[in-house]
Amino acid sequence: MGRGFVEEEIMRCLICKRGSTEPGTTTVTLERDGLIMVIKGVPAQVCENCAEAYVDEKVASELLTSAEAAAKSGAKVEIREYVTA
Question: Which InterPro entries does this entry report, sorted A to Z (predicted)?
């Protein structure tokens, strides 16, 4: 299906309660132990109404693992494009 998307059931948005989600991408910002990490192009289910993004468990785990490694390396600010593991 493309760039790490996992076929997911379309869901009703939990934030606005009006829109439905569709496959798309988002930018995720993580902060931990003095590190600010921005990851662009993250595959997500995105609400068509309010643009709230929902990242699946596999992608979230990859992002957290990557942020942990960056924090351990001593990075303070890191900006990267999402790449599937």
Answer: Znf_MqsA-type
